Amino acid sequence: MARDDMHVIMYTILKYLYECLKSGIDPDPLKFSAEALGINERYWTAIVADLANRGYIRGVVVVHKPSGDVVQVVNPSVTIEGVEFMMENSMMQKALDFVKEAKSAIPFV
């Protein structure tokens, strides 16, 4: 599994939002931006839109345009469904294992 694998990115975003929720702090969208995650904007938009469409995160507005989706992040947070997905999905477990190994490459995890 690579650092830019979709499941690693999903896990990283969900974990960050969950940690913010548990700590009672507002998430900083810049900490899970495409740039912060080291991926291109189109890939990031697809991942965040998918997380929102599946109900794993809220506070994200997905605007569908002919030229492609646009994501607006407004007060993001993880949902209980997102936490359960992060903790119970086998691919999320593989992503967790990868993140543990690569923790120095993703400083906010």
Sum this structure up briefly:
It holds the Pfam family YjcQ. It contains 5 helices and 2 strands.
Report on the biggest sheet: 2 strands, antiparallel
CATH C-level category: Mainly Alpha
Q: Any idea what the CATH superfamily is called?
A: Winged helix-like DNA-binding domain superfamily/Winged helix DNA-binding domain
The percent range for strand residues is: 5-15%
Rg, Å, rounded: 13 Å
Helix amount: 40-55%
User: Can you count the beta strands?
Assistant: 2
**Structural class by helix and strand composition:** alpha+beta
Number of helices: 5
What number of structural domains do the residues give? 1
Give the ordered list of helices and strands: HHHEEHH
Uncertain stretches = none
What is the CATH third-level topology name? Arc Repressor Mutant, subunit A
Mean pLDDT: 86
Placed side by side, the strands forming the largest sheet appear as 1-2
| General shape | globular
Give an account of the 3D structure.
The chain is α+β, with helices and mostly antiparallel strands and 109 residues long. The protein has a single domain (6-100), classed as Winged helix-like DNA-binding domain superfamily/Winged helix DNA-binding domain (Arc Repressor Mutant, subunit A), CATH 1.10.10. Helices cover 51% and strands 15% of the residues. It contains five helices and two strands. It has helices at residues 6-23, 34-37, 41-53, 80-88, 90-101; strands at 57-63, 70-78. Strands 1-2 form a two-stranded antiparallel sheet. Strand 1 (57-63) and strand 2 (70-78) form a beta hairpin. Helix 1 packs across helix 5. The longest helix has 18 residues, at 6-23. This is YjcQ protein. It comes from Collinsella tanakaei YIT 12063.
